[in-house]
Design a protein that fits this description.
With 218 residues, this protein is α/β, with parallel strands linked by helices. The chain is built from seven helices and nine strands, in the order E-H-E-E-H-E-H-E-H-E-E-H-E-H-E-H. A seven-stranded parallel beta sheet has the order 3-2-1-4-5-6-9, sandwiched between helices. Strands 7-8 form a two-stranded parallel sheet. Strand 7, helix 5 and strand 8 form a beta-alpha-beta unit. The protein is globular and about 40 Å long. The two termini are 22 Å apart.
Length: 218
């Protein structure tokens, strides 16, 4: 289901690697985006140059819902890595907790589409990372709001450096879905899904995800 009505996008995780890439593309195209920025990050690059932003903590539920009012779509790009645990991040707080906060606010604000960045393997989770992604997916799936879940393979670009073996395996006919995806490709697909509000109540992974990359001309 696509829509011809203008879409207004709330970007959670805008200062991360995927979020920064998405914001560059969105602003270059003149899309209506409202990036979320934590107060301690508002003066950092590139957040300081964004023409508008929602500066708040996600834990401030009333402020978050108010910031989302008028937005049609929430893109949830927040996630953490084990190397950031020393700084206080956990899968429970960064992947699961923020998803619940965003879903709760989206319900109050009248958002009609949630785009969740998750991970390949979340459908059959093994290990703490994928189990956290699976739980975030459950929260979105049970929200009652139309959703699209994007499960990319290994990423490349910025600090993402997938093993060279994945490039080799990705050339094989039966393993093509394992080839790494560049952040530019991922950001383009996320924006395409958000702009079109389609496909809804769907999971993009493997062939379906790469089909979206091809459809976007990337």
């Amino acid at each position: 289901m696509s829509t011809d009505s203008p879409r207004h996008l709330f970007i959670a995780g805008a200062t991360g690697a995927t979020g920064r890439t998405l914001m560059r593309q969105a602003l270059a195209r003149g899309l209506d985006v409202l990036p979320h920025v934590r107060p301690k990050s508002t003066g950092t690059e590139p957040a300081s140059t964004w023409p508008k932003k929602a500066v708040l903590e996600l834990a401030d539920a009333p402020a978050l819902a108010e910031a989302m009012r008028g937005c049609t779509t929430v893109l949830q790009l927040i996630g953490t890595m084990r190397k950031r645990f020393a700084a206080g991040d956990t899968y429970e707080s960064s992947d699961i907790g923020t998803t619940q906060q965003l879903v709760d606010a989206a319900k109050v604000a009248g958002v009609d589409h949630i785009v969740l960045l998750t991970s390949v393997g979340a459908g059959r989770p093994v290990g703490a990372y994928l189990k956290a992604k699976a739980e975030a997916e459950r929260i979105v799936r049970d929200s009652g709001i139309a959703f699209t879940m994007v499960r990319p393979p290994a990423l490349e670009g910025e600090y993402h450096r997938p093993p060279g073996l994945l490039h080799t395996l990705g050339k094989l006919p039966l393993l093509g879905n394992l080839k790494p995806m560049h952040l530019d490709q991922l950001a383009t697909v996320l924006l395409r899904v958000a702009e079109r509000r389609a496909p809804i109540n769907a999971v993009l992974e493997g062939k379906s995800l790469w089909a979206e990359v091809e459809a976007a001309g990337r």
